[in-house]
């Protein structure tokens, strides 16, 4: 069943006001809790705004949640039960938008946090969406293709009561891809009796996907990184870049950085990575990683761990892996002059404070990695009107929208004298609050 603003499952009042203290030391369940982290960021941003208390409470919690347990027939004919979620944080600006992740570490609080961040991201980019997120507790690498398809189609059926091209539009995230989106689109369409491409984005081109969608998040990271380097006074022809996370986002961002003339000296995946002081051959590394699934035996480069990469002496550190990578425990060791957040929530609030004191510029996640949802919006528009644009048009539109958002955050940062993360959330939260007040409270 869906739940609207239940108080029980959420951080209670006492815990909510202890969030900042717990996160300051990255301790205990709150210190590792993405939703607590999202709330701590929210509390900091709203301190600069004059919002009604009811609006603040509305934005603290998801509008609705769906928790499902569903059976899947495995290849050996055994039946396994999987747990899945879909969370809508806000519907004020339009239908909800957000990815679906398949991972054994998925939690409801993680999905809540990601849905909240999606609300801010869409508002920051001025997209007509609210934020959503979904997830299934599963390791997709341990399933056969047929098992993965059966799981996806059953999960899509379970969440279809919340899904639709005018209500909630999923997209790929960690552990999912264009093929998974194709299965979801087909399942939803079969239930309706006709094809509805606009129900998901990040689909294959053959069934209504958009050119440029696969590279969009990484491109957006590169665009915002380039602009931030100008603020920080980092010369592209002398810049050294390190990339944590070499999936779709990190690898594309690394390639874009290389093509801009930056020297990508290190890159890692979950099992470690490669380092070369005079610069990696990024295209060769991408080919090796695609074939081997790791970077251990990449020729002409030495091995580096993720911990060593975070402490590497470099100009730009691209965080494109998971949440909670830079915390109070390791922030002092970060030597980069700036961080570009290709992942959601890779830097904790306590780490933010440490890095701020040390003069590290952070391009926040809701700005830095917004290229994916931006081109997802363009894909949705193309599907709705059955008219498609060229890749050059998509990329130009993406860059223009990213530059406009970057400038807005830069101006807000200067006006309020706050870091870019606070500025980005101030802008986004104010826009959502304005929309709530303009629409009014029903009834």
Structure description:
This protein has 443 residues and is an alpha/beta fold. It has 2 domains: 195 residues, Rossmann fold (3-Layer(aba) Sandwich); 150 residues, Rossmann fold (3-Layer(aba) Sandwich), CATH 3.40.50.720. The protein has 17 helices and 13 strands. It has a 7-stranded mixed sheet with strand order 10-9-8-7-11-12-13, with helices on both faces. The radius of gyration is 21 Å and the shape is globular.
How do you describe this structure in short?
This protein is an alpha/beta fold.
Q: Which structural traits does this protein have?
A:
about 450 residues, seven-stranded mixed β-sheet, disordered N terminus, Rossmann fold, six-stranded mixed β-sheet, 17 helices, 2 domains, alpha/beta
Question: What count of structural domains?
Answer: 2
Helix percent band: 40-55%
Strands side by side in the biggest sheet: 10-9-8-7-11-12-13
Unreliable parts? 1-9, 13-30
Give the CA-based shape.
Answer: globular
Number of strands: 13
Most strands sheet: 7 strands, mixed
Report, as a whole number of angstroms, the end-to-end distance: 24 Å
Helices and strands: which structural class? alpha/beta
Q: Averaged pLDDT, please?
A: 93
CATH topology of the largest domain: Rossmann fold
Radius of gyration: 21 Å
Tally the helices.
17
CATH top level assignment of the largest domain: Alpha Beta
Q: Can you name the CATH architecture of the largest domain? A: 3-Layer(aba) Sandwich
CATH homologous superfamily (4th level) name of the largest domain: Leucine Dehydrogenase, chain A, domain 1
Helix-strand topology string? EHHHHHEEEHEHEHHEHEEHEHEEHEHHHH
β-strand amount? 15-25%
